[in-house]
Write a structure and sequence with these properties.
The chain is α+β, with helices and mostly antiparallel strands. It has a domain of 160 residues: Cupredoxins -  blue copper proteins (Immunoglobulin-like, Sandwich), CATH 2.60.40.420. It has 7 helices and 21 strands. It has a 6-stranded mixed β-sheet with strand order 12-11-14-19-16-17, with no helix packed on it. A 5-stranded mixed β-sheet has the order 1-5-10-9-7, with no helix packed on it. Strands 2, 3, 4, 6 and 8 form a 5-stranded mixed β-sheet that branches. β3 and β4 form a beta hairpin. The longest helix is centred in the N-terminal third of the chain and has 20 residues. The radius of gyration is 22 Å and the shape is globular. About 10% of the residues have low confidence. Its EC number is 1.7.2.1. It comes from Halorubrum cibi.
Length: 419
């Protein structure tokens, strides 16, 4: 049997989402701790672990007011689709419509050029719940950049927001002018100012970029962050295999070829990459009342976006459904480029139900840094690659979520639908 059935999974999503939205849109301002007091019983009941009634608040014991939920909502703002974002890789050759881009050769080097802006905008983080964000190209997380090891990434950046901004890359950057911090190069860019950043795509792995203006915590929390994926160059791997392994034993010819094949599977320019289903997930959070503590958590911004809505139970979802699990082919290798952009909390985490995976911290190695685990933790800006194999699993729903329970109950709860 699958790890959880469709009706129970839908009940989980509905109960937790309604309670979260109620807490954020009600007349009384509440903290996440108070919200969780009302969520605890609801969440456990939905998966058959406790009473079917949910406490109205952490200190209320009126039986008549327990378990009252409003109508479940759908997302009305469709400008950002977390399902489309999962696989939106901007390579210069192809990508998102809101990211002007091109790829060309210059002095014998491949240049991948992108145009970025910083804007003030409003994003939807739960049905009917909006957040005043600062965003790259109008979206949170920002666009995913993808290049090949050794390429030149050129970003033409213009600040259209009301505050000063930069772009700081977590790459091996050899030119301090290009570091995107207030003290170097152009410093912070005021409204209307532009600067062209240039970074060598190195090392191979999955990396992070963000605004480095002060106060740093506000610029990150408001939404100025995203992912840079640097694909390994198989020929570089063949020449220097030790640069890609956390291993000190002999490099045999067979092991070298194994590493080269793995590099091809991670390189979007090779056919071997087509056999892998790749996804980008950015764990993030939102302090909706700006008290220094988050009220909403998510993978890719929208609370419960990968939860369960209306379905016939065989993978066919109601038209217009904005909450649905991530559907994956059980016979296809699954790869998640995961990063943590959460502000105000020391760590975030990723946990799979009924499944174990291999983890590559920062994605800078072609062999796992942690093998056969079901939970990993990340500090802010930490990232890594998760490799999953569902080939021996029955079709159905398999939950994944943060294993800080409060994060899961406040939006960071999701499902894979294995077909």
């Amino acid at each position: 049997m699958p790890s959880i059935d469709y009706s129970s999974a839908a009940d989980v999503t509905k109960r937790l989402e309604e309670r979260l939205v109620e807490s954020l849109t009600g007349e009384t301002s509440v903290s996440r701790r108070t919200v969780l007091g009302g969520l605890g019983v609801a969440g456990s009941a939905a998966v058959g672990l406790g009473s079917s009634r949910a406490a109205a608040s952490s200190d209320h014991d009126d039986e008549g007011e327990h378990g009252n939920f409003g109508a479940v909502g759908e997302y009305q703002d469709l400008d950002f689709d977390p399902h489309e974002f999962l696989t939106a890789f901007n390579t210069g050759e192809s990508g998102q419509d809101n990211v002007p881009q091109q790829v060309y050769e210059e002095d014998g080097q491949t240049v991948r050029e992108f145009e970025f802006t910083a804007v003030d905008t409003t994003i939807t983080i739960a049905p009917g719940v909006e957040f005043q964000a600062w965003a790259y190209n109008g979206q949170v997380p920002g666009p995913t950049i993808r290049a090949v090891e050794g390429d030149l990434i050129r970003v033409k950046f213009t600040n259209l927001g009301r505050h000063a901004h930069t772009i700081h890359p977590h790459l091996k950057n050899l030119n301090p002018r290009m570091d995107g911090i207030p003290q170097n190069g152009p410093g912070v860019l005021d409204t209307g100012e532009s600067f062209t950043y240039e970074w060598i795509a190195q090392p191979a792995g999955t990396h992070f970029y963000h605004c480095h203006s002060l106060p740093l915590k506000e610029h990150i929390h408001r939404g100025l962050y995203g992912t840079i994926i640097v694909d390994p160059d198989p020929e570089r791997v063949r020449e220097n295999p030790r640069d890609y392994v956390n291993y000190h034993g002999p490099i045999t010819d067979d092991f070298r070829e194994q590493l080269v094949e793995e590099a091809k599977s991670r390189n979007h320019e090779y056919a071997e990459n087509d056999a892998v289903n790749e996804m980008v997930m950015v764990m993030n959070s939102f302090d909706t009342n700006f008290d220094g503590g988050n009220e909403v958590y998510a993978a890719n911004t929208r609370a419960f976006a990968y939860g369960i809505g209306s379905t016939d139970g065989t993978g066919n979802w109601t038209a217009g459904e904005t909450k649905r699990p991530i559907q994956i082919d059980k016979n296809e290798r699954q790869r998640v480029y995961l990063s943590n952009a959460t502000e105000f909390d020391l760590i975030n985490s990723f946990h799979t139900h009924s499944q174990f995976f291999d983890y590559y911290d920062h994605g800078t190695t072609l062999t796992p840094t942690r093998k056969t685990v079901d939970t990993i933790m990340q500090t802010q800006a930490q990232r890594g690659i998760i490799e999953l194999d569902y080939s021996d699993h029955e079709p159905g729903l398999y939950m994944f979520h943060a294993h800080q329970s409060e994060f899961a109950e406040l939006g960071w709860m999701s499902f894979f639908e294995v077909v």
